[in-house]
Every structure is written in structure tokens, then in C-alpha cells.
Design goal:
The protein is of the alpha+beta class and 311 residues long. It is 33% helix and 13% strand. Among the domains are: 8-65, Double Stranded RNA Binding Domain (2-Layer Sandwich), CATH 3.30.160; 102-152, 2-Layer Sandwich (Double Stranded RNA Binding Domain).
């Protein structure tokens, strides 16, 4: 008994090889070539139209209908809702389905990246798969190899033959030895690499007379260049005026210290740096016993006493 062959209906448009087993499907397909959308949306203020009734139904369900049936097609991972099962399936495949391309042939564990699988194989073979190209030292993982490679990186100075293993030391060398300026004292021709050093040195040559404010109390040799500093000194050291804490009755020498102290009550976990004293390791001031000159005054006279020389 001969079997009846199915009649195929081919698209007659040039360049289209579509074939259908039903004539109505071919007719529906031709609407796409002719840009005929015979299924408009019946909702008001909606200009959408489709060549297929199923596409129109899907549009109406997704856009214009909100029913309790939508709960049947909600994503179990992110709870996002869809009007039909097909849309939910596509969402899960694109968003939540994780493709794991690398699998261990021995224990069947899966890995997202090839180097993770290579590092895992050490558990089965005992062979370290990663090695340093310079010293040939072997490592279990790629992360350990990259961390080790940083120990080989060096920074060679372009001005001289010096080599450094740290970027910060290389930059300091460039700044001080090649592109820094040498500050020269006009009085004694001494050289300094930092401006702050020569400013401190020039004080030994200076004969500038400035108004001073000595402390009027007996047995106190403190001298200040500003009257406001002298007043603060008298209040703190001689009149013993203190700022009292209302919570624990502690006495602080300045208002700023009182504000910081109050923060310790409101924020007990705040970390504060302990103040050093001479008993706990504070160093003696290099300019102890000399009159302090403000930076504004220094700026007025220091440029005339300094000359610079480029390397």
C-alpha cells in the first residue's frame, strides 16, 4: 500500500525558502512579506497590529489584562510575573539559567572558568598547572601565580641606571635626584633639596626685628609673635581656665578638646589617637626656646633670601 505524500506549500518570494504543510500557514506567512497586519488591537488608544492572531492574544494578555492567573506564571527566583508560560520559560533561560562549560571528568564538578578547572585538577593529579615564566616556580592557582609575578616587576630609572622594586621608591628617586630643585642659601651657599629645610636654615642668618609679646608672669619665659597666642597661653597656663564637661565633670584646656571629649560620650566606639607627652615618647622641639614666626611673616622675607638652581 503506497503512502500518500504530503503536499508542501512554498513561499514564492525571491530569496525566501520557507515551506509550510498547510495553505493557511503560507497565506499567513505572505502577510509578513506584504506588510499586512490584519489583527489590530481592539483596545482604545492602542495602535498595535499583528499578522498573527496568537501574537495579538499574547499582546492583549501582557499589556491590557491583569488577572489572577498571572500568578501561575511567576518566576520562582525573582517573582517576576508573565502572562504565559512561554515568556516565563524564556526569562528563566536568559536570566537565571547558568551555563557551566567546564566539567571535571573525574568527580563531575562544574566550573565557570577554565583556570578554575585547571586548579581543581591538582586534587586528582598532584601536578601544579601554573608556573612562573621567569623563575619557573609552580603554583596551584592562577591567583597565586599573578601575586608572585608582582615580585619580579622592577622600575628602571630613565635618567640613570638605578632600579627599584617599588613604584613609590622610584617616584621619590625621580623627584629628589633628577627633577627636584636645589635651594641655595645666599648667605653661606649651602644647598638644600626641600624648601622647608632652607627656610628653617635661613632663620640662623636673619636679623629681622619683629614685635614680640612676652609672657608678663614671673618665671615664665614664653614669647609669642601674636597677642592672641599670648592671651590663650595666659588663660590655659596661668589663670587655669578650663572647659568643664557636664556629663563626667572632666576639665579640658580648650573648647576644641571639649567638643572632641563630648563625642566620646555620644559615640563611645570612636577611635581617637592618644596624645603623646614627654613621658610617653614625645620628642623635644628643634626650635625650643626660640621665638616662633608665623608662615605669613616667613612668606614676606624668605623669597629674597633663597635662590634656586635646577639640576
Amino acid at each position: 500500500m503506497q503512502t500518500k505524500q504530503k503536499t508542501l506549500h512554498r513561499c514564492t518570494f525571491e530569496g525566501c525558502n520557507s515551506v509550510f504543510n498547510r495553505p493557511y500557514r503560507l497565506a499567513q506567512h505572505l502577510l509578513v512579506h506584504n506588510n499586512i497586519k490584519g489583527f489590530p488591537c481592539p483596545e482604545s488608544n492602542c495602535n498595535k497590529a499583528y499578522t498573527n492572531k496568537s501574537h495579538l492574544d499574547r499582546h492583549i494578555n501582557n499589556t491590557h489584562k491583569i488577572t489572577e492567573n498571572d500568578m501561575l506564571f511567576s518566576c520562582p527566583t525573582c517573582l517576576k510575573k508573565y502572562a504565559n508560560r512561554q515568556n516565563l520559560k524564556r526569562h528563566v533561560n536568559i536570566t537565571h539559567k547558568v551555563k557551566i562549560p567546564f566539567s571535571c571528568d573525574i568527580c563531575k564538578l562544574n566550573f565557570l572558568k577554565k583556570h578554575q578547572l585547571t586548579a581543581h585538577m591538582y586534587q586528582h593529579t598532584g601536578i601544579m598547572a601554573f608556573s612562573c615564566e621567569l623563575c619557573h616556580k609552580e603554583f596551584v592557582s592562577l591567583k597565586e601565580k599573578k601575586k608572585h609575578a608582582r615580585t619580579h616587576k622592577t622600575y628602571r630609572c630613565t635618567e640613570c641606571d638605578a632600579t627599584f622594586g617599588m613604584w613609590s621608591k622610584y617616584q621619590k628617586h625621580i623627584k629628589l635626584d633628577h627633577f627636584g630643585r636645589a635651594f641655595v642659601c645666599n648667605e653661606c651657599d649651602r644647598h638644600f633639596k626641600l624648601r622647608s629645610h632652607i627656610v628653617r636654615h635661613i632663620k640662623t642668618h636673619s636679623e629681622i626685628k619683629t614685635r614680640t609679646f612676652p609672657c608678663p608672669y614671673d618665671n615664665c619665659e614664653r614669647v609669642y609673635s601674636r597677642n592672641s597666642n599670648l592671651k590663650q597661653h595666659i588663660l590655659m597656663k596661668h589663670e587655669r581656665i578650663r572647659h568643664e564637661c557636664e556629663i563626667c565633670e572632666a576639665e579640658l584646656s580648650t573648647k576644641a578638646k571639649l567638643v572632641l571629649h563630648l563625642k566620646l560620650h555620644s559615640e563611645p566606639n570612636i577611635k581617637t589617637k592618644p596624645t603623646k607627652t614627654k613621658l610617653t615618647g614625645r620628642k623635644e622641639r628643634k626650635d625650643a626656646g626660640s621665638m616662633k614666626i608665623s608662615m605669613v611673616r616667613q612668606a614676606c622675607w624668605s623669597p629674597g633670601s633663597i635662590r634656586t638652581r635646577n639640576h
